[in-house]
Amino acid sequence: MLDQHVETRSNSKLVEKTLRGLTVVWADFESRLEQVPIIAKINRGTLTLADYQAYLLNIRQQVVDGGCWIARAASNVSVEYFDLRSTFMRHAVTEHRDFQMLEANYVATGGTLDDIRSGVKNIGSEALSAFMFQRASQPNPFGLLGAMFMIEGLGSRKAREWGLLIQEQLKLPDEQLGFLLYHGEHDDDHLAEFEDWLSAVVHDEATGQDIIKTARIVGRLYALQLEEIEYA
Amino acid sequence: MHDAYIVAAGKFLPGDAISNGDMGAYLGSIDNQSERLGRLILRQNKIATRYYVPSKNGQYQYNNADMSALAANDVLEKSGLNGASLDLLATSTTQGDLLVPGHASAVHAALHRLNKVGPLELANFQSVCASSVMATKAAFLNIKTGCAQNALVTGSEFSSRWFQPAMYEAAREKLENKEKRMAAEFLRWTLSDGAGALLLQNHLSEQKNNQNTAFKIDWIKLISLADRFDTCMYAGINGDERHVLSRPWSHYKNGPIEATQDGSIMLLQDMVLLKRILRAWVGEYLKLVDEDIIIPAQIDHLLCHYSAHSLREEMIKILKSTGGMIDEEKWYSNLTTKGNTGAAAIFLMLEEFMEKKIAKAGEKILCVVPESGRAMVGFMMLTAQ
Description:
The complex is a heterodimer.
Chain A: H1 2-7, H2 12-33, H3 37-44, H4 49-63, H5 66-75, H6 82-95, H7 98-108, H8 113-117, H9 123-136, H10 144-170, H11 178-186, H12 188-201, H13 205-227
Chain B: E1 5-12, E2 18-19, H1 23-27, H2 32-45, E3 49-50, H3 64-79, E4 88-93, H4 103-115, E5 121-126, H5 131-144, E6 150-157, H6 166-169, H7 178-188, E7 194-201, H8 206-211, E8 215-224, E9 233-234, H9 255-261, E10 268-269, H10 271-290, E11 301-304, H11 309-321, E12 331-332, H12 335-338, H13 345-355, E13 364-371, E14 376-384
Helix pairs in contact in B: 2-7, 3-4, 10-11
């Protein structure tokens, strides 16, 4: 990874441009979230325990796939990007247990394991998951770095923010909020690595644009997943 | 289309510069907790001095319109323009002195007393900080289209009146809530009073060209994101009802007294939402960078209004990794000495910047004015002449 990074410093402008595009996509996504009913409830302090349980149940159906699409993406990374393949694999390992925390939080709030495990993906989760697996199945699916940027952003910027707001309005103990509170504490490390990943793969305009477009699609579908919660 | 130039800038700051330690003597005291939070907030905003209308014994020598008129008069004196030649007066402020009629009328009347300014066209802009950009744009477009030759723009704030203990008294128990307390104290220890003014003309006089700094206005853009964000800085509604604006101060059965007792007449800032809006402002800026409307390497001076130094740090963090950063040595600000004067701030910055003759002919100056009120950001690109 380090060797590649040194060799590819000449692409720093392209990396900057990609990060700029991703930051714009993030800002649009984050402001779109303000209008999503369940997020507006969190922000306005009007969430109910039933809303929070619906959130956990809905999100779990997609998070359960989280480690899998990253693992599939890793298996499609060619040997010249070996270090990035390792990174994807490590990343998949850290993600693939996340759904268990969601389940534990759900049970701690009074729900049953059967209920959350027998839940089905809402149409936003279906679209998001299908898109991720489709992209992950392509050779060298670097566009998915855009997906990771969005997912990591949700972890580092939004999860803890939502967790604390929910905790305040519903007066919940930490063990009912582990998924949201835990992410805020750990995902900063992932974001710090992100610039290195971009340096390793963005050597032309098209790759950067593909990453940005993928991020935009993921943001749109993630918002759809949250929008669908009330109607699940 | 004509070109539009900023040919002079004026200012009015009431009284003397007030140090951090003296603020309480002018604002009055709410309680010990307020003082403690004040020290914390001052460390974050890094404001060292500011100006207030009220004297130590609580006397008001000026109102908001007076301050605008005094800044406007300053710009007329500096430029040598006869007040009778003005075609347009465009004013901006967060809150005029009266509920009705508009602030611009009061400024016009006050300016007449100072400088015999007769009948002219008015434009009255009320928002928060970015109302200054709206007023400048109105003047800019009037000049561009030939509807005006000489247009005066003012921005003024009388924030300190919100911060007198009596403004909180009727609903003191609301401040027991930690979030509301911070929402009130952040503004109380950050905002202050003052006025700035610009004179816009469709030409540069020979004399101006040689001796004084003047700026051609290249473009002005203002983007509101109120389509997605809730109210963030507000007065006139109980904080709990601000999201849907269901019951403004005028809707109470028992009238304004009940509204006051319910905490509707406090100036508050949602500090959590502010952080989200900040990322949206940066996003709008980066869009302009992406479209090559702003090319960071070609900007010689950045005059960016921000309410607190800590927010500046937050913006820089995002800009550095995205190629959107304008080198910090190109940033010009007088937040620490003149305080955060809202709608007046960008004009007071430009006034000082022009007075010091910092810009050389041909240099590009970018002014950025974010407004938290309900998420808005204004940009102005200038070229030094």
